[in-house]
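PT: before anyone asks, these are the final sequences, not the draft ones from last week. 568 residues across everything. Please model them as a single complex and drop the result in this thread when it's through.
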Amino acid sequence: MHKIPSYIPQPLLFSLTSIGIAATLLCSCGKKDETRQLILTGSSTCAPMVADMAKRFEESHPGTRIDVQSGGSSRGIADATSGLADIGMISRNLKEGEDLTPHRMAMDGVCVIVHQDNPVENLTKQQVIDIYTGKIENWKDVGGADKAIVVANKAEGRATLEVFLGYTGLDNADIQADIVVGENQQAIKTAAGNPNAISYVSIGEAAYEAEHGTPIKLIQADGLAPTTGAVANGSFPITRPLQLVTKGEATGLAKEFIDYATSEEVHDLVEKHLFVPAGN
Amino acid sequence: MPDPSRHRRTRTADRLLGALCWASALAVVAVFLWLLWDLLSQGLSHLSWSFLTGTVEDAGRGGGIAPVILSTLLILLVCLAVAVPLGVGCATWLSEYQRPDGALAGAITKAVDLLASVPSIVFGLFGMVFFCQVLDLGFSITAGGLTLACMILPIIIRTTLTGLHSAPNELRLGAAALGMTRHSALRHLLIPAAVPGIVVGVTLGISRAMAETAALIFTSGYATRMPSSLSDSGRAMSVHIYDLAMNVPGGAANAAASAAILLAVLTAINFTASKLSDRWHAKAVVTR
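LR: through. Structure below.
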C-alpha cells in the first residue's frame, strides 16, 4: 500500500491547538501579581477623557493599572452597583434610587443644533418644547423657511436625553421624534446631513465640529449663546455633570484615582476633550 | 417555420438579461470602489509607518494603532484556536458518525443554523455574563476571543459539513472495503477532501470576527494599552474605529485610516487563504 502523504491541515490544527493551550497557560500565570488594578465602566461620553486621565495616572503611579471600559451611563451605574466595576462613569446627575457616591470631574452643556443653512438663530424653551411635542411642525413658525421640521431625539438611556428632558420638563413618551439617534456624533451627522433637521448634543463637541467645517449651527437658548464659557460660569441653562460614581465612599486606589481625576492636574485633559473643568 | 418576431423578442430578452447582469456586477464594484475612495481620501494622509507602530495617543486622535492591531490579532488567534478544532470536530461527528436523518443530528444542525442568525450584540451580552463574570475572565482578550469563537462556530461547522458532504461516497466505501479504520479514513481521505470547505469557513469566520464591534466592546473591552498577556483588556480595530467615529470629536480621519488598515489586513488574509486552499486542494486531487 503506497503511503498517502499527510496534509497541511494536521500541522495547522496542531499548531492552533497548541496556541490554545499556550493561551490558557498565559492566562493562568500572566499578571494577577502586585499591580494594583482598577476597572472603570460607563458613559461613552466620559470614556475617551477618563482613558486619557488613566494613562497619565499610570505613568505617574508605577505599579497601577487603570482599565477604562465604555458602554453608557446606565452601564456605569449598574456595574458600580454590582461591583463589576470599581468606579462607574456617568454623564448626568444621579437619580432617585441610585445609591452611589458621585465625584464630579467636569461639566458639559447641551445645546440644540440645526443645519448651517437654517436661518433660525435662537429658540425659546417653549419653542423647543413645541417642536419636540409636535405642536410646531414647520420651520416658518419659528422664523425659518417653509419646511417641515425633522425632529431627531436621543435614544432611551442616553445621558443627553435625560438632560434634555430635565430642561424641557418633558416625558420621553411626549416627544414626537422622526429619527432616534445614539451618540453625539450621530446627532451631529444627522443635523449636518439634513437642512431641516433639529437635534441636541454636547456643546463642546458641537462647537468643535462647527469650527472644523461640519455644516451645523449651535442655537441660542432663550437668547443665551451656547459656549463653554457660559457653561463654566453657570449661566447656560442646559448643563450636565460628568462624574465618577462609587458604591459608598471610595477607598484605596479608587480614592487615589478619583482625587486625581477631580484635581487641577487634569484640567488640560478636560479642556482637550471640550468639556469644562468642575469647580470653575 | 420559426416566427421571426418571436426570435427577435428572445434576442431582446437575452440582451436585456445580459445588460442587467453587467449592471449588477458594475454596481457591486462601484459600491466597493466608492467605499475605498471614501476611506482613502479621509485617511490616507494619516497613514504612515509610525501610525502602524505607535501607541494610541489623545483618545485615538493622535499616535498610532499598534496595540490595537496586536489586540485584534490576539483575539483572532484565541478565537480560531477554539473555533476551528471545535467546529471541524462537530461537523465531522455530524457528517461521519451520525445518520443524516437522525433525530439528534437534525436537532444539532438546526441549533447551529439558529446560532448563525443570532445578532452579534446578543453574543456580546452573553460573553460578558458567561466568560467575563461567571468564568471570571474579566474584560480580557481571552473573553473576547471566546465570544467570537461562539459567533463563528456555526460558519465553520456549516462549511466543513458542506466540504465533507462533497467528498464522494466511494471514498467511504473504498476505505471500508480496504478495512481502513475510521480514524485513518478521516485523516487521509475525508478531512483532506473537506479542506476547501474548512478554509472557506475559516476565511468567512475571520472576516466576520475582524469586523465585529458589538460582541467585543463588552468582552475584550476598550483599553488601548499594549497587551502583555491574554488576560489583559485589549481594544479591537473595529471597536477603535467605532469609538473614533462616534465618541471622539475630530477622530474621523484616524477612524478612516484604521479602517483602511483593517481592510488591507482582511484582503491579505483572504488572498492567503484562497492561495493555500488551492494548493491543498490540488495536492488532495493528485493523490486520489
